[in-house]
Specification:
Length: 575
Amino acid sequence: MLWTKTLIPTLREPPAEAEILSHKLLLRAGLIRKLAGGVYTFLPLGLRVLHKVEQIVREEMDHAGAIEVLMPALHPKEIWEQSGRAESARNVLFKVRDSANRDWFLSPTAEEVITVVAAGEINSYRQLPKNFYQISVKFRDEIRPRFGLMRAREFIMKDAYSFDVSDEAATTSYQKMYGAYERIFSRCGLKTFAVEADTGIMGGKYSHEFMVPAETGEDQVVFCEGCGYAANLEKATSGIPRTATREVGAAIEKFATPGVLTIEALTKAPYSVPANRQIKTLVYIADSKPVIILIRGDDQLNETKFMAKIGTVAARPATVEEIVPLLGARPGSLGAVAKVPADVKVFADERLRGANDMTTGANEDGFHLKNVSIERDIKVTEWFDLRTVTAGEPCARCGQASKIRRAIEVGHVYKLGTKFSEPLGASFLDESGARKPAIMGCYGIGVTRTVQAVIEQCNDKDGVIWPLSVAPYRVCITPLSVDPNSEAMKLAEKIYAELTACGVDVILDDRDERPGVKFKDADLVGFPIRVAIGEKSLAKGEVEIKPRGGALQFVKIEAAVEAVMKLAGENQRPA
Ligand code: ATP
Ligand code: MG
């Protein structure tokens, strides 16, 4: 490709819209342009990278035995109602109304569609296992689209769906995908690690996320260097000890706490109740019903864990207007000892089990209760691990101090069980002729997010450093004169033609610009190999070859193509 024939609108300065480095570089290197919040156009170089990532994904999916299909982006509302997700996924669904007033959703994922296909086409255990995948555009009405391709409203995802005869067979399918993901990300030049994760609106049984460590990542991961435990903070547990029990005896005592509305305020004189001797009482509306959550004063509720434990995808903190008629007091004086309506469930964090000599709100504005013994004085419906792990806590498995780091989720594998196959009728006849629902798994890769994650991980002060495997072009040839009659340009064209004939993707910078400008652009875009041809080196019968981020080498003209080929490597899938 000739630089002047394509479109590479590099920018000296990043547009104000970009907050994180990879987003700035995507824009500065001329890979994408914004149309609207979370909606982007891929310019020629960005599209080349995207195609290369897609190709790696495709090769590894095919290699793992998955078969490619293409499903519609327009989904009739009814299939989402049948699976129960029209409600649970409501917040992310883009809705479209047709001229006959029928509602459609723009696909944020495709479990429903593929399960309808399987329901129609799979009938016997002999047809299983099957794993279908597609690489296609997805739409999600994200509340906060940001960071460019990282959290977009329209993006490209690879989604795969496996159908198996048994749990055991489904585990094999899951493991195959897990292995394929490791190969995909490593071939893209990404360092990733897998963590245990929450299942969210997929509602499955079990899942792992593939994470790229990055300070700018939206996820937090708890990990242990001792035993390798790693889990998303939304799911992580720790081996933190329970609250120390003290001698029981004293009966509950009510005391006035005028103006005390926070845990912190109660720790101060004249009350001086340490946060770890307080019970924090939270009221949530879960699936439209109020519930009470008890957590120790110095702990934080983990909403995702809570929702997963009680099996809901729709929960939110209750408003003051909802709380007052329920408990007879305002936030700051809430508790679960008295005045809790019989039909309101009380969920307590494990760390409170057995705790006594605790202080909590009295459900009377301006009053608290002390000497509360949770198991004696509060009717707890169910105990769960509901708190958010903090750095340094002992690992749940081995006890070593765990750490927390930020990361970007690029892929997610889930075990779904029969969550979709039952309601949508994807069943098969087993060997004995009995009808059974297929056991499913689903597997997503954010393809466009992966493109940006590579940039987030591979860069320096001058720009992107593309891994060879996904570089827009592997080689950039920069003649220092573009006069068609100059020696430099003639040689540049010759090397360009030879490399092209060898199947190396190469771009020739034929712009009539100063060398400094061209070198800066080549570094900014991040071509892995730069070949410079200038009068000085030509006079010595040499060209300059410089791997991006590596040392400059002077190579004899006759040996130039071979030297570049050595650096540019193979295009093929590694064995
Ligand atoms: P997140 O927690 O980041 O919202 P998710 O759990 O909703 O992700 P999945 O439903 O598992 O994501 O989707 C599969 C993959 O699609 C994710 O691992 C991620 O790489 C990508 N993805 C999800 N949402 C977006 C988005 N808004 N923009 C770009 N990529 C996305
Ligand atoms: Mg999401």
